């Protein structure tokens, strides 16, 4: 079975969500279903149907998270000796060669990607172009917005 890379933070976040779903959301939904059942005829009971739908989403998400965690290869970048090479889990500062605009990215697993917080998926075009390169190198990235030249300015294992 193929393992998928995940940062330590990503694993913690998924485990926290799983804990919440199992210990908070699931019991709340079960109580809602029980309460809705007490209202009588289930065929025309909107509360019952809404609660059952919530239950389906909750159980589906629990299964999804458990599957992701079982296939995760958790990588703790702080345990890897620091170097100048871009690898999974590191934070990298790049400079757009054309605009001199500096950007910081953290390369994370697919489920952890959050562009608003500059966390990019290891499978994204930018991450794929950067991985394996070293500080000082310039990489050419094909993005939906066109071609970008990025110079690797710094690599941090945080």
The main pleated sheet reads as:
5 strands, mixed
Number of DSSP E strands: 7
List the secondary-structure elements in sequence, H or E.
EHHEEEEHEE
Distance from N terminus to C terminus (CA atoms, Å) equals 29 Å
Shape verdict: elongated
Uncertain runs with pLDDT below 50, 5 residues or more? none
CATH fold assignment of the largest domain = Chitinase A, domain 3
CATH superfamily grouping of the largest domain:
Transcription elongation factor, GreA/GreB, C-terminal domain
Beta-strand level of the residues, as a percent range? 25-35%
* Average pLDDT for all residues: 92
User: Would you identify the CATH architecture of the largest domain?
Assistant: Roll
Proportion in helices: 25-40%
Which CATH C-level class of the largest domain is it?
Alpha Beta
Strand order of the largest sheet: 5-4-3-7-6
- Which structural category fits the helices and strands? alpha/beta
How many structural domains in the coordinates? 2
Total helical segments: 3
Rg over CA atoms: 22 Å
Concise structural overview:
This protein is an alpha/beta fold and 158 residues long. It has helices at residues 8-37, 46-70, 125-130, and strands at 4-7, 72-75, 91-96, 102-108, 119-121, 138-143, 146-156.
What order do the helices and strands come in, and which of them pair?
Layout lengths: L3 E4 H30 L8 H25 L1 E4 L15 E6 L5 E7 L10 E3 L3 H6 L7 E6 L2 E11 L2
Parallel strand pairs: 1-2, 4-5
Antiparallel strand pairs: 3-4, 3-7, 6-7
What does this structure look like?
It is a single chain. With 158 residues, this protein is of the alpha/beta class. The chain folds into two domains: 4-75, Transcription elongation factor, GreA/GreB, N-terminal domain (Helix Hairpins); 77-156, Chitinase A, domain 3 (Roll), CATH 3.10.50.30. The chain has three helices and seven strands. It has helices at residues 8-37, 46-70, 125-130, and strands spanning 4-7, 72-75, 91-96, 102-108, 119-121, 138-143, 146-156. Helix 1 runs antiparallel to helix 2. The chain is elongated and about 70 Å long.
């Amino acid at each position: 079975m193929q393992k998928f890379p995940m940062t330590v933070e990503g694993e913690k976040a998924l485990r926290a969500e799983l804990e919440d779903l199992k210990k908070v959301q699931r019991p709340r939904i079960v109580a809602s279903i029980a309460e809705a059942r007490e209202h009588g005829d289930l065929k025309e009971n909107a509360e019952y149907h809404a609660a059952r739908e919530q239950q389906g989403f909750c159980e589906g998400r629990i299964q999804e998270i458990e599957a992701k965690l079982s296939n995760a290869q958790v990588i703790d970048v702080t345990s890897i000796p620091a170097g100048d090479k871009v690898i999974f889990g590191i934070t990298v500062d790049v400079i757009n060669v054309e605009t001199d605009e500096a950007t910081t990215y953290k390369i994370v697993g697919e489920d952890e990607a959050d562009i608003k917080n500059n966390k990019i998926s290891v499978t994204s075009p930018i991450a794929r172009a950067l991985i394996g390169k070293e500080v000082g190198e310039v990489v050419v990235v094909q993005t939906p917005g066109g071609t970008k030249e990025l110079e690797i300015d710094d690599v941090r294992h945080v």
